């Protein structure tokens, strides 16, 4: 089946064409640069940018796949969770296109999309698996019993891990999003230079909290007489990054142990972070677990993973109709479905 996947849940307009649930024929992502000057995503600007870019991005994805609109057999679109105005652009576009082409449309959970990056990268990963989903809006440990069958074992009590990167970036006067910039500036730093707090590190507790490390950063920044730069900035950021990675990896391995799974895996934008990927693979190898760390372009927001979830839903006979709507949260959407 040839499926078009669309994601407009936040500040990326993404579209991809996927064949047979596995082969990515094209994967186009247009990032909105407008938010950098505000230090975070401005929802109204994001929706307007999606309206301008959705059609060109979809047409680029079709051209990349070497097909026209008439080559599509189904459309999958992120309908939750996300910024409501942004989601509405993708869902309205997908519904109208599906109606005009007379093909099925299905609404997809964005977090399940991040989990499906793993399936695209390694369809034969031994299940059940523990998936750590780390993005700008979510940080969750999910027990994947099977594709489509999940149990959330832990989640953040406050900030998401990506949000912590972005807020710390803002506190230090860096551009948005902070994650990739912090990784770059921290590259030559000493991760043991500052002992930033790791919260809720009692074995068995699989929830996360990143507000403490963010506050610790704020106090230190407030106490500075001059702006951090050079080696000092690198050490500071490497230590912050290490505190976040430490909590994420330690708890993933606890979950793997508690549920006796053969494998662990990663998804979400923060999973593009090199030191996190390396530490995740190291710890998994030490415990004799298979680790699947998808390519970076499948970890950050993209349409291919949404198409992959859609393909799986279509194959089970799931589809939506013109009543498909959007939801800011996962819970509200689940209750309605
Ligand atoms: O999954 P994603 O693309 O969008 C959401 O669903 O939120 O994740 C975006 C988040 C941002 O917070 C960004 O700072 C973070 O992922 N991120 C990173 C890196 N690349 C993206 N964080 C740390 N290191 C990176 N290399
Ligand atoms: Zn995401």
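Q: What amino acid sequence fits the structure above?
A:
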């Amino acid at each position: 089946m040839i499926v078009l996947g669309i994601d407009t849940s936040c500040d990326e307009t993404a579209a991809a064409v996927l064949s047979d649930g596995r082969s990515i024929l094209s994967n186009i992502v247009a990032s909105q640069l407008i938010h950098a000057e505000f230090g975070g995503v401005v929802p109204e600007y994001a929706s307007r940018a999606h309206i301008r870019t959705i059609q060109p991005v979809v047409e680029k994805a079709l051209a990349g796949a070497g097909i026209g609109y008439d080559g599509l057999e189904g459309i999958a679109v992120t309908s939750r969770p996300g910024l409501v105005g942004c989601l509405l652009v993708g869902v309205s576009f997908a519904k109208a296109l599906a109606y005009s082409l007379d093909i099925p449309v299905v609404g997809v959970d964005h977090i399940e999309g991040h989990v499906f990056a793993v399936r695209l990268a390694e369809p034969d990963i031994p299940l059940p698996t523990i998936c750590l989903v780390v993005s700008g809006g979510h940080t969750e440990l999910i027990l994947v019993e099977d594709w489509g069958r999940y149990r959330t074992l832990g989640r953040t009590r406050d900030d998401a891990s990506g949000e912590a990167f972005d807020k710390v970036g803002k506190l230090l006067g860096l551009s948005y999003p902070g994650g990739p910039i912090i990784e770059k500036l921290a590259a030559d730093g000493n991760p043991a230079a500052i002992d930033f707090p790791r919260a809720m590190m009692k074995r068995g507790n699989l929830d996360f909290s990143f507000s403490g490390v963010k506050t610790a950063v704020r106090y230190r920044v407030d106490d500075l007489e001059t702006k951090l730069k050079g080696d000092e900035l690198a050490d500071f950021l490497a230590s912050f990054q290490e505190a976040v990675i430490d909590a994420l990896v330690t708890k993933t391995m606890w979950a793997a142990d508690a549920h006796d799974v053969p494998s662990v895996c990663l998804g979400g934008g923060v999973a593009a972070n090199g030191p996190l990927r390396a530490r995740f693979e190291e710890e998994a190898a030490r415990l004799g677990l298979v680790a699947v760390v998808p390519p970076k372009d499948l970890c950050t927001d993209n349409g291919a993973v949404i198409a992959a979830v859609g393909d799986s839903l279509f194959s089970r006979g799931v589809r939506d109709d013109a009543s498909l709507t959007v939801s800011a949260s996962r819970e509200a959407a689940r209750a309605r479905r």
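Q: And what stands out in the fold?
A: Residues 10, 135-137, 162, 165-166, 177-180, 183, 268-270, 272-273, 300-301 surround KG4 (ligand 1) (CB under 6 Å).
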